[in-house]
Specification:
228 residues, alpha+beta, Ribosomal Protein S5, domain 2, Alpha-Beta Plaits, 2 domains, 5-stranded antiparallel sheet, 5 helices, 11 strands, 31% helix, 35% strand, elongated
Length: 228
């Protein structure tokens, strides 16, 4: 996802899916927050450009995004609001979001707040609170997932045995990755913590489930979504 090797092994992000939208009205101004999961700056900027077209009559399209497992890419824009009253409060709402007690690791998220002016001036402090609250209240409702760097392990079995084995592995709490199909066999992929003892336990569980007929083969590591 990023060229530099990440130091992080897990972080929190939006669940994959359509853009998440939430609206607040504050002193007659409409604040429409749109959030998108974005792994690269291009995707973040595409969201801003698309909303400028969709809400072409809005006065402001303020934005903030934080990207990368290490949250090393951070940008914000006030888009015509007084300096420091929109983009930075939005970015801080993303960066300071606790995804667990004492944990602030939200990333790969772009937030855009579209404002329709309602005729009442909010003042600098009011704008800071409005833009911060817009993002924070959207995050209260948005679907989030844990994204972890896991070791992908493959298991090759007959087609007839694949469905039951996958169900058994899921029931045992294992995270399943992409499945592929050959002429006579199915390759299931299990995502495991990249630790020798975890791999050993999974191999033992697999042997128990298949009477020793299936083998766990470690492959590459990858970023995998893990529901909370």
């Amino acid at each position: 996802m990023h060229e530099q090797e990440s130091r992080a092994t897990a972080y929190t992000t939006l669940a994959a899916g359509p853009d998440f939208r939430h609206e607040l009205e504050i002193k007659r101004s409409r604040f429409i927050t749109v959030m998108r999961r974005s792994g690269e700056e291009e995707g973040a900027r595409d969201l801003v450009a698309g909303l400028r077209k969709e809400f072409h009559d809005a006065r402001h399209h303020c934005s903030a995004f934080v990207l990368g497992p290490d949250r090393d890419v951070q940008r914000s824009s006030d888009d015509g609001e007084p300096s420091g009253t929109a983009g930075i409060p939005m970015l801080e709402a993303l960066l300071r979001r606790e995804t667990a007690p004492g944990v602030t690791d939200l990333s790969d998220v772009t937030a855009v707040v579209v404002r329709y002016f309602g005729g009442i001036l909010l003042g600098a402090g009011g704008l800071v609170r409005a833009y911060s609250e817009s993002v924070s209240s959207a995050l209260d409702l948005a679907p989030l997932v844990r994204r972890s760097r896991l070791r992908i392990c493959s298991v090759e079995v007959r087609h007839s045995a694949a469905g039951r084995l996958e169900n058994d592995l899921r029931a045992a709490g294992y995270v399943m990755a992409e499945t592929s199909y050959g002429a006579s066999t199915t390759v299931l992929r299990v995502a495991l913590a990249d630790q020798p003892d975890e791999l050993d336990r999974a191999a033992a569980r697999l042997a128990s489930l298949t009477a020793g007929s299936a083998v766990l083969r470690p492959e590459e590591t990858d970023w995998i979504d893990v529901p909370f």
